[in-house]
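Record 1 of the preview.
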Amino acid sequence: MCAVKKQMNEDQRQNLLDTLKQRFEQNEERHEKMGWDNVRLKLDENPEKLSVLHQMEETGGEPDVIGYEAETGMFLFCDCSKESPAGRRSLCYDRSALELRKKNKPESSAVDRAAEIGIELLTEEQYRLLQTLGEFDLKTSSWLETPQEIRERGGAIFGDCRYGQVFVYHNGADSYYAARGFRGILKV
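->
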């Protein structure tokens, strides 16, 4: 991943840590028994990840911890905004789809923007996990990491939640909509 490094000043850093702590404490159901002090320690050990979380926050993602990988000792931060992050919408799926589009090209692609931020698109499995922690994408949808065999045929997958059900569906990878963005995941 080729994340664009944006320097944060001390006020921005402290404001972000305060925001993350408050969100963490207000949403205990997403990360029971993990403890903010453990998360804060990991963030202090990996300051470059804080810059990524800052970009997630700045683009409307509202990142929060949704899991812990015991085998790697890493916390999983995910975009937990109710709707697909507002600062990451109207994007086709990837660079190839963007280049194939002849007219009305979007500004960028979900895969490119994720790489710029320093995150990965959610997999279908991660998206379904997120949906067990609340109701997300009730009015929007989010591009998901697409299996290669689907992508080779010109498609890409996205998820949303309608009628109390999580749906994963497909579209041409070159399509883009004002209500479709992407959610990312970051391991810290």
